[in-house]
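Contributing new records

If you add data, match the layout below exactly. Sequence lines come first and carry their own label; structure lines follow with theirs. Keep one chain per record. Anything else will be rejected by the validation script.
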Amino acid sequence: MAATLNSFVNSFNNKLEAPVRQHLKNVYGCLSLSTISAAVGAYVHMYTYIMQAGLLSTIGALGLIFALISTPDNGKNRSLRLGYLLGFAFLTGLGMGPLLEMVVSVDPSIVISALVGTTVVFVSFSIASLLSQRGQWLYLGGTLISALNMLVLFSLANIFFRSQMIYQIHLYLGLFVMCGFIIYDTQYIIEKNRMGSKDYIAHSLDLFLDFVNVFRHLLIILTQKEERNQKKRKQ
């Protein structure tokens, strides 16, 4: 095990120069803070009466992400921009409250399973991206954007058709696309840093959105599976 870990560290150090490694530490540090903030937001919705998910929280999240994007990093306003990021993450977690309540009503253990599954998926695809050849996965960008547009069209079409098959295709294809974005965004962040971009707060936002979307998809998939199992047990 020690030899394997040492080999991994050496491969990581050989492929990525020191400034890039430091940038990635900052990115993943912000990502960790964002996930904690989102967890606090979800807890606030589910177990307190301080705030609830709704139209105001959605508008607030959109406002914060717009403020973050429209405030360029100048090296002196990082505390402010980090506040925007954590506020957005908090409201994102708050917005997931209704979904989490529905999942908990079916089986509370699904939340833990989805979180562990999301973490495993995220770490695995991130490592694969970090250790792959430089720029190997950047070609995925156009394909992923096209797939994302197709998913939007599926959602709009299903408003009228209300097809369970279209919904399931959208759900599983969406999970596949989000996994692709983890690989793509990781390499894209590295290349942007090599070209001079040191905005680790904005870069962590991309990965945070990937993490949340994978988590949301796994929550729904696992909940559907548990509901089917419960129906079989009752028959």
